[in-house]
Amino acid sequence: MGVGPFSEAAIESTGSSRQAIVNGEFALFTPEIEPTIRALTQQVFSISAVHNHQVSVVRQLWFVHFSQFDTDSLQLRAIMDENRAVSNLLNQSGTGTGTSGSGGDGQ
Question: What percent of the chain has pLDDT over 90?
């Protein structure tokens, strides 16, 4: 699933042309969690929560909440692209996680 209809990010300007506050969450299947957290932390994003809402579901959907101050939106785009690539690899390998979402914009 990764970057899909249940993932979102908000980028708010701080008034400076290069500074922003980014808050968001990715909705992920279990195999997508570790690579996504790795990509986020490599770009100095803070992980504030990893959780799910349903405990008796076979394919659990996990939510990874992240934030960063003083960022460049290109960093977030790189993470979204990597997340989509992981989803595609899992689908091709037969461990299928469903679809990787639409264009990466959450719509």
Answer: 16
